[in-house]
């Protein structure tokens, strides 16, 4: 925990730098301490996606509505949404099931210079109550939800969304073509190497995460979003096998 008036200490990601027993990836305290460094070095375009969430929120946030960041982790998307909301009567809610993430997120929210209130909930996004939403963000969160439960979650989000509201969905995807999948995966690994990860770190993290992060094709995502109740789905960002989509509810 950071000292008063200072952000929590951020450490360099070395979680997979030495040989370790294979185990599933968990968003525990050890990950929370290195998460900003981990995601910056692992997700191409993350530093572009976050400020663009502010821009999108500014366009779609409606007066008197609720805005949700589901799977908020340390609050990067939450803060981007906070600065994009110009209506003081909006309610911004960040939700994450990791108490370690929420604890650190509280510090970042407190240090931020926006006056818009933020409510943080430590709970499962599959159970959290949703209503009267104009902007909802799932920023690299849905991929950790069991595939059989994704339709239900997106349907609940669509049903809770006002006409004219949106869902911002960022995901790691897989490709229908094996050749393209291989090329995009290789380029992603080269991105990680360029950011200082060793072959051992890349290999061990891939082993740890492959049972909990289940990617799907872009077509799968679009079909599910339209079936859930959104009227339009467009890709506004892509770098290698990472994309961000905007699902719009027109009516």
Characteristics:
alpha/beta, 7-stranded mixed beta sheet, 41% helix, 20% strand
How would you describe this protein?
By secondary structure, the protein is of the alpha/beta class. It has 8 helices and 7 strands; from the N terminus they run H-H-E-H-E-H-E-E-H-E-H-H-H-E-E. Strand 1, helix 3 (76-84) and strand 2 (91-96) form a beta-alpha-beta unit. The chain is globular. The termini are far apart.
Give a quick summary of the entry.
This protein has 251 residues and is α/β, with parallel strands linked by helices.
Instruction: Give the helix proportion (percent range).
Output: 40-55%
Number of helices: 8
Strand order in the sheet with the most strands: 3-2-1-4-5-7-6
List unreliable stretches of 5+ residues: 13-20
Q: What is the subunit arrangement here?
A: single chain
Largest sheet: 7 strands, mixed
What order do the SSEs take from the amino end to the carboxyl end, as H and E?
A: HHEHEHEEHEHHHEE
Name the structural class. Answer: alpha/beta
Overall pLDDT confidence: 88
Number of strands: 7
Shape: globular
- Using the CA coordinates, give the radius of gyration: 18 Å
Strand content: 15-25%
First and last CA, distance: 45 Å
């Amino acid at each position: 925990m950071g000292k008063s008036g200072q952000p929590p200490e951020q450490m360099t990601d070395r979680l997979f730098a030495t040989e370790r027993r294979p185990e599933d990836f968990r968003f525990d305290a050890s990950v929370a301490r290195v998460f900003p460094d981990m995601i910056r070095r692992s997700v191409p375009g993350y530093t572009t996606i976050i400020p663009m969430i502010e821009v999108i929120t500014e366009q779609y946030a409606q007066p008197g509505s609720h805005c949700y960041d589901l799977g908020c982790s340390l609050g990067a998307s939450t803060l981007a949404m906070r600065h994009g909301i110009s209506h003081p009567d909006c309610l911004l809610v960040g939700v994450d099931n990791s108490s370690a993430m929420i604890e650190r997120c509280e510090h970042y929210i407190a240090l931020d210079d926006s006056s818009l209130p933020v409510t943080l909930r430590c709970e499962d996004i599959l159970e959290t109550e949703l209503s009267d939403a104009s902007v909802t963000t799932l920023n690299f969160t849905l991929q950790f939800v069991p595939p059989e439960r994704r339709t239900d979650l997106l349907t609940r989000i669509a049903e809770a969304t006002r006409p004219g509201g949106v869902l911002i969905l960022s995901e790691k995807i897989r490709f229908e073509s094996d050749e393209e999948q291989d090329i995009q995966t290789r380029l992603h690994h080269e991105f990680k190497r360029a950011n200082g990860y060793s072959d051992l770190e890349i290999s061990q993290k891939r082993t740890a995460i492959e049972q909990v992060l289940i990617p799907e094709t872009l077509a799968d995502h679009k079909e599910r979003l339209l079936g859930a109740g959104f009227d339009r789905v467009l890709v506004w960002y892509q770098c290698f096998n990472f994309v961000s989509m905007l699902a719009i509810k027109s009516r």
